[in-house]
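Hi all, posting the design record for the shared folder.

TITLE: backbone redesign
STEP: 1 of 1
STRUCTURE INPUT:
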């Protein structure tokens, strides 16, 4: 299992290496200044759940359902609502100035109460409000849940997070975001890199000058490139933007190790370099085992049957071995740690220790 996981790390590093050397489009790494997403959100109700909704302790969802029913002419009191097929949820999405009235967007839905799963539910019409207090969209429809949860008599199983769901094309734009930028009247515009980097910014500026055949760009900082529109593109920004976005270049990728401690996932880029370092791997495992026995009294003794709980604690210390890890490639690092029998959790700790020792020449990003 350890070899398989570490092999996946090598494969991911290989993919990163290929991507770093391959040409990418400018539209995939940068955007024009002023093109941004605006968050919208609302509070809604999900119905149709199979007794996995909010319990009666969550009276907010019951009141919301009762108010919805009263608005439809059905008078009902809270005490009359017994089913657990309703859940209160938070609904969120993002829109930009390019969305027009009637456009559809995807929506995220997350439980706001004590519901155990949103699987099989449908979102009732929900107003989505912007930070300015205006209503920009309405969301409704059947939810798509990327997990499940099941329990019975105290035992259960769960995959992923069933209290989060997705509503694909379930949001309908009712109000457009006011755009304050008239690109057709502009003679220059800033092009913003998603991941600021001076090397990539310089390469992009050179590629754009070559694309148009004249000098149109200047690098202001690691994230901003100022573009001056040639005369033939003034008033026709769409044609200029098409040429800019289709420009290709090689992106410079910083050496980085991404760690997700919750899932034990480690992803290392191909530019990660390691100096010579000695690593000793070992650990202490403590296992607590509980068992339940029944104590029966002797016949005619007058005693009672008792349930006796017993606990056994076992501590095992793994033998650690000292090994030299040296080389400049990620393959050497992975191979050496694989020989030590390192699992993903231990790999995270070892990488952080190697970084603290100054032998891992890469940024560690913890998610």
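Okay, here is what came back for every position:
SEQUENCE:
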């Amino acid at each position: 299992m350890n070899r398989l996981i570490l092999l996946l790390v090598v494969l991911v590093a290989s993919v990163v290496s290929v991507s770093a050397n391959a040409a990418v489009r400018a539209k995939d790494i940068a955007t024009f200044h002023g093109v941004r997403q605006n968050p919208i959100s609302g509070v809604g109700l999900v119905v149709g759940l199979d007794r996995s909704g909010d319990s009666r302790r969550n009276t907010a969802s019951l009141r919301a359902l009762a108010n919805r029913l009263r608005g439809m002419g059905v008078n009902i009191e809270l005490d009359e609502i017994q089913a657990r097929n309703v859940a209160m949820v938070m609904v969120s999405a993002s829109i930009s100035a390019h969305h027009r009235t009637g456009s559809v967007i995807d929506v995220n839905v997350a439980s706001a109460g004590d519901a155990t799963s949103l699987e099989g539910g449908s979102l009732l019409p929900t107003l989505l409000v912007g930070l300015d207090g205006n209503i920009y969209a309405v969301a409704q429809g059947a939810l798509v849940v990327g997990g499940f949860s099941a329990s019975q008599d105290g035992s259960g199983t769960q995959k992923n997070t069933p209290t989060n769901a997705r509503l694909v094309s379930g949001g309908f734009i009712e109000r457009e975001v006011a755009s304050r930028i008239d690109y057709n009247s502009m003679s220059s515009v800033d092009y913003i890199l998603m991941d600021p980097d001076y090397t990539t910014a310089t390469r992009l500026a050179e590629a754009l000058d070559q694309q148009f055949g004249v000098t149109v760009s200047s690098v202001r900082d690691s994230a901003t490139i100022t573009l001056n529109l040639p005369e033939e593109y003034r008033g026709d920004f769409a044609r200029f933007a098409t040429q800019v976005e289709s420009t290709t270049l090689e992106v410079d990728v910083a050496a980085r190790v991404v760690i997700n401690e919750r899932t034990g996932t480690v992803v290392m880029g191909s530019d990660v370099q390691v100096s010579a370092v000695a690593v000793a791997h070992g650990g202490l495992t403590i296992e607590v085992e509980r068992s339940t026995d029944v104590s029966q009294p002797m016949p005619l003794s007058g005693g009672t049957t008792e349930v006796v709980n017993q606990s056994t604690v076992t501590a095992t210390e793994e033998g650690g071995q000292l090994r030299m890890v040296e080389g400049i490639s990620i393959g050497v690092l992975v191979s050496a740690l694989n020989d030590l029998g390192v699992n993903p959790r231990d790999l995270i700790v070892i990488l952080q220790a190697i970084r603290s020792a100054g032998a891992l020449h890469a940024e560690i990003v913890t998610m």
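COMMENT: The chain has three domains: 1-22+252-295+304-367, 30-34+181-250, 38-173.
Let me know if anyone wants the other runs.
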